[in-house]
Design brief:
Layout lengths: L1 H19 L6 H8 L26 E3 L6 H16 L4 H12 E5 L2 H16 L13 E4 L8 H6 L4 H14 L2 H4 L11 H15 L5 H24 L4 E4 L11 H10 L7 H12 L6 E7 L9 H10 L1 E9 L13 E7 L8 E5 L6 H13 L6 E4 L18 H9 L1 E2 L5 E3 L2 E2 L3 H4 E3 L15 H7 L3 E5 L13 E4 L1 H8 L11 E2 L9 E5 L9 E3 L4 E2 L3 E5 L3 H11 L2 H10 L7 H5 L2 E2 L4 H22 L12 H4 L5 H33 L21 H20 L2 E2 L2 E4 L22 E2 L12 H12 L5 H12 L1 H5 L4 H11 L1 H8 L6 E5 L7 E5 L7 H29 L3 H34 L8 H10 L9
Parallel strand pairs: 1-2, 1-4, 2-3, 4-5, 6-8, 14-19
Antiparallel strand pairs: 5-7, 6-7, 8-9, 10-21, 11-20, 12-16, 13-15, 14-15, 17-18, 17-20, 22-23, 24-26, 25-26
């Protein structure tokens, strides 16, 4: 980006100087002569930009945060080209560039040394003797006046007024390494008068060696550096280019923060925005050019609104290369998103700026290619030309250069969304680990789902209430994941304090708790989505929410929120990954007639219904009934699955058609052709034509089966059968849960009863499908779980057994967001003892019962080893003998592991640990184990 910045600022200034002399060539022709491939020609509207006539020696270029000098070095190259074109020799050019044209400041001494070295090495390419010429460069580190004696300033022979000003200057430079070029100097200091007096004092002490004389010379040297820096900071420059420091206000120390807030009231959000103002002060008003690369947040975010306002009133955007993320090869991810831009330091009302949209480039090289295409092909789809004053129509004046004009005009015609609904932030608990749980962690009977207000919630006496935390991308309905401890009107949260007694929680806008709402996540991965949140929930600061007593108003906004228009509108106001309340409140909502309103509400109701049905097909929903493949007709699992997939396909295309209808309504309403709507978004229901959907169906069936084994579910009723509270045996008729709340995961069937998982699965499948289809169902499950092994002819039962032994818990842990409700006992890498237990049925005698299972399994291992020994003796072939021998080795490892595991299990069994479901999975998981390792990790 250095070449872009320098060619489009310094290069542009020189081109304008040539044209002011009468050069009739176009900007492109002049740039091509110099080989400036990154130069972007101005629009024809630049006629009002007139530069003064200057000689090249008078042109002054500054980088006030020069770092190691990359910008100055490239500016040197450009200036050498200019000097040569003006007929100067290389030696003359080098001397003039270093002493007349280039200026720079830097707070880091080491960086300054690198900049000095780089600049001199560049100069040496054109003048081999430059290092011996004793040239005084105009670059320096910002001095620090920590050693300056205040009395010394008072003793200098200058007027009292000058002493007063000089004293203020010295005070500022006491923090030179913090303030840097952001120092705002007092007016009226006569630097030359001060330097004259310093020279007189210096003459007196030259050649003397007394301690006082050395101290005097040190004071003179320090003050001389301060005066030099003062002259650099008080001068005006024709061109300024910099890559400024990045530091948010919160990261600044108290002294710097106080200074910046005072001196830069409209630019103090970050040091890069401070330097935007610094540059406007250093560069000549009226014809100077500024080039910068910064984070792009100032273009959109509300906190930078004053910065944008200053720019719109005082400066003109000539060109902007909007880079976005991944602009630099050594910085990955989406956090650092940048923009490079060129400003004229005066307002030019009619100027039409050029904007290159490079955010889609996936790498530094990709963005470079896109930019050069914009220069070569001005009608490129990545090139935009617009007057910055068009942005004034949008609330907050974001630099939304890519917006269709019709959409910009909609901000003038529409009513802000915030005037139609109440957009509010919600509860900040102060400690989510303490007060939040996934709903499936706690006793289900202690959750109140249907509160309409805080009074009802308190009256219920329940502890847990649904909590809207935002969640991942999902439209229309869903992300009902969390519950919050709001017992007794949130007493614990409201009185939660730190060690100093300060309340850490913030229960904001409590009058809106439990009301119908539309909600969107604070942070997204790029796609904006809204959902309808039915009454009964508390919202937090990340689950952004808007409220209205009229459900239809919410649905109209929801329709707009999930339309392609909304993605563009939100993108204009804030194209980052954070969508604050203030961003959404400014969205323009256009008037709809009754017919249009009715059409939107009808489509939205249908979309909510489809999305809810999709959400409720997964165990993460508290309205989950049972797997669809059990409910759909079919003589076997595969036929039932195909029936479900057919219905799923119908629902998918119904949702797709519904969203297209909604997009069409809002496209017409907001004045955009369908062709202008190029933003596609994922459909928020499960895609039918994919292996993932089949795998999901089979995994869901097996997970439900485990739930039936433990009594969480019953084949005789939809939904939860037991998730805490009192056990009711009568709800389990068709399929009885395991009495001991345990199911073994073994490499083979050692018992032939309910302790073996495949025996229980066969029983489950005989009940849920036609008994005659058992083998077909086992085969279908096996080939879905592991197609390759199934094709090779491996036993169906063994494939399924291996899944439960090796992969089921991983899938379960992932599905339940590392808060599993089925815990896996695990003795170690040899799988000596693995078993599943249901958290909600745990009691303090559980581990003792587990030891009984372990001892039975250990005995079974010993019997199998004995059998192997007998068979090895009887075997007639070496192959058979080797198979029995290998199996015995494996079993012996299991026995050794089990014996060691039993010691740990016994220790915890004797402790008889009790748990409280309200403490959540993480706490209880650790509590039951104590200092042992009994379970697979979360």
């Amino acid at each position: 980006m250095v070449k872009y910045l320098v060619e489009n600022s310094l290069g542009r200034y020189w081109i304008k100087m040539l044209q002011s002399r009468g050069d009739t060539r176009t900007e492109s022709e002049i740039a091509q002569k110099y080989g400036w491939v990154y130069f972007c020609p101005s629009d024809d509207s630049d006629k009002e930009i007139v530069l003064v006539k200057k000689q090249v020696e008078e042109l002054k270029f500054i980088d006030p945060a020069m770092g190691s000098g990359h910008i100055l070095v490239y500016a040197f190259d450009i200036l050498m080209q200019i000097y040569r074109s003006e007929g100067y020799s290389d030696r003359q050019s080098v001397r003039s560039i270093l002493t007349n044209n280039l200026f720079g400041l830097e707070i880091d001494d080491r960086a300054y040394q690198l900049a000095y070295f780089s600049l001199m090495m560049k100069a040496r390419e054109f003048d081999r003797r430059v290092l011996t010429r004793n040239l005084n460069l105009n670059i320096m580190p910002v001095p620090v006046a920590s050693r300056m004696n205040q009395q010394y300033v008072k003793d200098i022979n200058i007027t009292s007024n000058q002493k007063l000003i000089l004293d203020k200057v010295v005070d500022l430079f006491r923090y030179g390494n913090e303030y840097g070029s952001a120092i705002v100097l007092p007016q009226g200091l006569n630097e030359n008068e001060v330097l004259t007096q310093l020279e007189k004092r210096e003459e007196t002490f030259i050649g003397q060696l007394g301690l006082n004389d050395v101290a005097e010379m040190d004071q003179i040297s320090s003050l001389r550096k301060i005066i030099k820096a003062t002259k650099l900071l008080s001068s005006e420059y024709d061109v300024g280019v910099t890559n400024p420091p990045y530091m948010g206000l919160r990261r600044m120390d108290d002294n710097l923060k106080k200074y910046i807030k005072k001196q830069y009231p409209s630019h103090n959000q970050d040091m890069f925005s401070v330097f935007m103002r610094v540059m406007s002060r250093l560069v000549t008003n009226g014809h100077g050019y500024i080039g910068m690369i910064t984070q792009h947040s100032w273009m959109f975010i509300k906190t930078f609104e004053k910065t944008r306002k200053y720019l719109n009133l005082n400066q003109t955007i000539i060109n902007m290369a909007h880079l976005g993320a991944r602009a630099f090869g050594d910085i990955s991810g989406e956090v650092v998103q940048t923009t490079a831009f060129i400003l004229l330091n005066k307002p030019a009302k009619n100027y039409v700026g050029s904007y290159e949209r490079l955010v889609g480039g996936s790498s530094e090289e990709d963005k470079k290619r896109l930019y050069l295409e914009c220069i070569k092909y001005p009608n490129s789809s990545s090139m935009y030309r617009i007057s910055q004053h068009s942005f004034d129509k949008i609330p907050g004046s974001p630099i939304a250069y890519w917006a269709p004009q019709a959409l910009i005009n909609d901000f003038e015609k529409g009513k802000p969304l915030g005037q139609l609904v109440d957009a509010k932030v919600g509860l900040q608990t102060g400690n989510n680990k303490r007060f939040l749980r996934y709903w499936y962690e706690v006793d289900f009977n202690n959750i109140f789902f249907d509160a309409h207000n805080t009074a009802e919630a308190k009256q219920s006496g329940k502890k847990w209430f649904p909590y809207n935390k935002g969640g991942s991308y999902r439209k229309w309905y869903g992300n009902y994941d969390y519950v919050v401890n709001w017992q007794n009107d949130g007493y614990e949260i409201k009185h939660f304090t730190d060690s100093r007694g300060k309340v850490r929680s913030r229960p904001q806008n409590t009058d809106y708790y439990f009301k119908n709402a539309i909600t969107w996540p604070l942070i997204t991965s790029g796609n904006f989505s809204m959902r309808f949140r039915t009454f009964g929930s508390i919202h937090d600061v990340a689950g952004m929410s808007a409220f209205s007593d009229n459900p239809n108003t919410l649905k109209l906004i929801l329709g707009l929120g999930n339309s392609s228009i909304m993605k563009q509108l939100v993108g204009l106001l804030n194209p980052t990954i954070n969508y604050q309340i203030g961003d959404i409140e400014r969205i323009p909502v256009l008037h709809m007639d009754k017919t249009t309103e009715s059409a939107v509400i009808q489509q939205v109701d249908h979309a909510i219904s489809l999305s809810k049905h999709d959400w409720d097909q997964q165990e993460e929903s508290w309205d989950y009934g049972m797997p669809s493949v059990i409910q759909y007709e079919g003589s076997n699992l595969e036929q039932s699955l195909n029936t479900w997939l057919s219905d799923l396909q119908s629902r998918y295309y119904s949702m797709k058609n519904t969203e297209q209808n909604i997009n069409g309504i809002f496209n017409r309403l907001y004045g955009l052709d369908q062709t202008e709507d190029s933003i596609e978004s994922p459909i928020s229901v499960r895609l039918p034509e994919s292996r993932e959907t089949t795998v999901f169906a089979v995994n869901s069936l097996l997970s439900y089966f485990i739930g039936c084994v433990f009594g969480r579910y019953s084949l005789d009723k939809l939904g939860l059968a037991y998730a805490g509270g009192n056990w009711n045996e009568s709800v389990y008729g068709s399929f009885k849960p395991n009495q001991d709340n345990l199911i073994l995961l073994t490499d083979r069937d050692y018992f032939g009863d309910e302790r073996d998982i495949i025996n229980r699965l066969k029983e489950f499948l005989r009940i849920t499908f036609a008994p005659s289809s058992l083998n077909d169902n086992l085969h279908f499950i096996a080939k879905t779980l592991d197609p390759k092994k199934s094709e090779r002819g491996e036993s169906d039962e063994q494939i399924i057994r291996n899944y439960f032994l090796n992969d089921f818990y991983k899938d379960h842990d992932k599905t339940y967001h590392k808060r599993p409700i089925y815990w896996q006992f695990n003795s170690g890498r040899n799988d000596g003892f693995k078993a599943l237990m249901y958290l909600h049925r745990y009691n303090k005698d559980e581990l003792a019962m587990v030891r009984n299972y372990l001892h039975d399994l250990q005995a079974a291992y010993s019997n199998t080893i004995k059998f192997n020994d007998e068979q090895e003796t009887k075997s007639s072939t070496a192959r058979e003998k080797n198979q029995y021998r290998k199996d015995t080795v494996k079993l012996n490892k299991k026995v050794t592991e089990v014996i060691k595991y039993d010691e740990a299990l016994q220790h915890q069994a004797l402790a008889q640990v009790s748990i409280d479901l309200d403490d959540g999975v993480v706490v209880n998981h650790a509590k039951v184990q104590g200092n042992e390792e009994l379970f697979s990790k979360l």
